[in-house]
Automatic annotation (TrEMBL):
Protein name: Helix-turn-helix transcriptional regulator
InterPro entries referenced in this protein's UniProt entry, alphabetically: ArsR-like_HTH (IPR011991), Metal_resp_trans_reg (IPR051011), WH-like_DNA-bd_sf (IPR036388), WH_DNA-bd_sf (IPR036390)
Record-linked Gene3D superfamilies: Winged helix-like DNA-binding domain superfamily/Winged helix DNA-binding domain
Native source organism of the sequence: Streptomyces koyangensis
CDD domains referenced in this protein's UniProt entry, alphabetically: HTH_ARSR (cd00090)
Amino acid sequence: MARDPGGDVVARAERLSRGGWAAVLEGMGPGTRWLGEGRLQINSPPYPPGEIPGADLLFVPVTPRRGWVTWDEPHRYAVVDPCDGVLAGTERRPASGPLGALLGAARAEVLLLLGSPRSTTHLVALTGQGLGSVGRHPKVLHEAGLIRRRRAGRSVLYRRTEAGESLVRAGGGA
């Protein structure tokens, strides 16, 4: 399975906007959590706490399944962790059954894949469909209110709306 650091950044930015640092750090790695009041735990005890006032703290998504911490004292620290975004592989689900019958198998597959933000390039890689086909599906799904779109640099990212989530759950795709 190929990992997608770009998708990771988008997913974590969305978590930050919804739930703050605690949501971003949740599941990042063993012992990593937001303690509140400007404090962050990045590893399990027995290491003593340290302070890094005024230093840069970077979060670096990587494709290996293991994370680590690195630093250039006293000015720069980094939490290097496995990325969350998935570009290809195990996430592909066939869109058969009621959802496939309602939307068509190809369009339903695109809706299923939009549980996390994706560009048309990601969708082409995941589905194996041509760019022309994949490009039409988000347009129709957006007009139906099942997905939303937003610009991220040069890309447009699509993600299911609550109505899209409900449809996927009702169709047995969740």
